[in-house]
């Protein structure tokens, strides 16, 4: 149902934001480290208008769910909590946010590790910026979106997803130093394109496992007497730590080094090797992979024309990303998907967009 059917009036404004896929630099952002995401073609679109009855009304097309919130209501759950979080954060910044009608539609898959929540937060904040003429830039939008995520979903996430959704495009990679927020837009390795396949395994334990990893990294940084693991470049430095901090730190330090190497502008072959090493590190040292992701990644890595593949996002299920020879993304992803399905899994090709 469209905005008019739900709210009985036309929207006053509209905004959208993409999901993201991370090429390299996983679980580094909350260690003040380096990341290399790109936007995916799938986007979340919000339409907004002022509400006349003093209540916020949010409607999700995909969930066919409507949530109304009046002053004094408890925080809503589900999709509405992210939107409500954005409204609350703007209010805390000192902006007055009147009651709004907000209609959401999205092609970003939920639960695949492609930042559907960041896309919703960034689209919502862009929509409110446009509706209320707020003087707020794209970096601030990402920061507020991250706070909305932390405070309203309970995941102690870093800032990669929201920065990628707010600042990246589908034609480049966004190198981001998550401590200084310095960034650089860089091209994909020449002769290569990106493939994203959902493993079909929903992310479980994502919240608790994620927060636990984050705490282990903070312990490791504390034991090494640095502010964050980003301050260490030699993986040897972690060798005397107790387990699991030793392996967690080794992943983060080597992963930061992989991103910095990729930033130098390496060949597609070398970039692929870095992705393969990243997957092994996430699987063995960081322990955030699951059998379905390992199977899918191995199938991708074995396929001619694939430079490299790895799980992407937090892990615990969700999607894999691969770098493949330019022009071959569709054929390779179809071939791998058939093989993956024959093994008893049911996945989905997300990039390139195939019908
Ligand atoms: C999730 C978080 C990000 C980042 C990744 C792992 O997507 O939201 O901040 O930590 O996991 O790299």
What is the strand content? 15-25%
Structural class: alpha+beta
Return the CATH class of the largest domain. Alpha Beta
Report helical residue fraction: 25-40%
Gross morphology:
globular
Order of helices and strands: HEEEEHEHHHEEEHHHHEEHE
Task: Name the bound molecules.
Answer: alpha-D-galactopyranose
The unreliable regions are: none
The largest pleated sheet is described as: 7 strands, mixed
Task: Count the E strands.
Answer: 11
Q: Do you know the CATH architecture of the largest domain?
A: 2-Layer Sandwich
Q: Ends: how far apart?
A: 23 Å
Q: Please, how many domains? A: 2
Count of discrete alpha- or pi-helical segments spanning 4 or more residues: 10
CATH topology name of the largest domain, in short, is Ribosomal Protein S5, domain 2
Mean pLDDT: 96
Explain what this protein looks like in three dimensions.
The chain has 355 residues and is α+β, with helices and mostly antiparallel strands. It has two domains: 3-184, Ribosomal Protein S5, domain 2 (2-Layer Sandwich), CATH 3.30.230; 189-351, GHMP kinase, C-terminal domain (Alpha-Beta Plaits), CATH 3.30.70. Helix content is 39%, strand content 22%. The protein is built from ten helices and eleven strands. The chain has helices at residues 3-7, 79-92, 116-132, 138-153, 160-167, 206-223, 245-263, 268-284, 291-302, 329-342; strands spanning 13-24, 34-50, 56-60, 65-69, 100-106, 173-177, 183-186, 192-198, 306-311, 319-325, 348-351. Strands 1, 2, 3, 4, 5, 6 and 7 form a seven-stranded mixed sheet that branches. Strands 9-10-8-11 form a four-stranded antiparallel sheet. A hairpin with a 5-residue loop joins strand 6 and strand 7 (183-186). The model has no long low-confidence stretch (mean pLDDT 96). Alpha-D-galactopyranose binds next to helix 5.
């Amino acid at each position: 149902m469209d905005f008019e059917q739900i709210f009985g009036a036309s929207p006053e404004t509209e905004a959208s934001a993409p999901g993201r896929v991370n090429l390299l630099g996983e679980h580094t952002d909350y260690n003040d480290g380096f990341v290399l995401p790109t936007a995916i073609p799938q986007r979340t679109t919000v339409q907004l208008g002022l509400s006349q009855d003093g209540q916020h009304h949010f409607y999700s097309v995909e969930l066919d769910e409507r949530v109304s919130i009046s002053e004094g209501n408890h925080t809503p759950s589900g999709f509405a909590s992210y939107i409500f979080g954005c409204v609350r954060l703007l209010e805390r910044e000192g902006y007055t946010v009147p009651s709004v009608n907000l209609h959401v539609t999205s092609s970003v898959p939920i639960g695949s590790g492609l930042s559907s929540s960041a896309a919703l937060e960034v689209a919502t904040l862009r929509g409110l910026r446009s509706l209320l003429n707020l003087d707020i830039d794209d970096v601030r939008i990402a920061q507020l979106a991250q706070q909305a995520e932390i405070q309203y979903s309970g995941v102690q996430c870093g800032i990669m997803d929201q920065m990628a959704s707010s600042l990246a495009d589908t034609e480049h990679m966004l190198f981001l130093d998550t401590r200084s927020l310095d960034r650089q837009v860089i091209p994909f390795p020449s002769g290569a394109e990106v493939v994203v396949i959902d493993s079909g395994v929903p992310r479980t334990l994502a919240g608790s496992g994620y927060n636990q990893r984050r705490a282990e990294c903070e312990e490791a940084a504390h034991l090494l007497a640095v502010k964050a693991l980003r301050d260490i470049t030699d993986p040897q430095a972690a060798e005397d730590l107790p387990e699991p901090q030793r392996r967690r730190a080794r992943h983060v330090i080597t992963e930061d080094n992989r991103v910095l190497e990729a930033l130098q502008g390496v060949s597609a072959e070398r970039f692929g090797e870095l992705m393969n090493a990243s997957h092994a590190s996430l699987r063995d040292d960081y322990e955030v992979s699951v059998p379905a992701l390992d199977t899918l990644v191995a199938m991708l890595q074995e396929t001619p024309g694939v430079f490299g593949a790895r799980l992407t996002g937090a892990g615990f299920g969700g999607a894999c990303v691969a770098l493949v020879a330019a022009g071959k993304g569709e054929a390779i992803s179809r071939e791998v998907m058939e093989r993956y399905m024959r093994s008893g899994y049911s996945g989905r090709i997300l990039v390139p967009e195939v019908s």
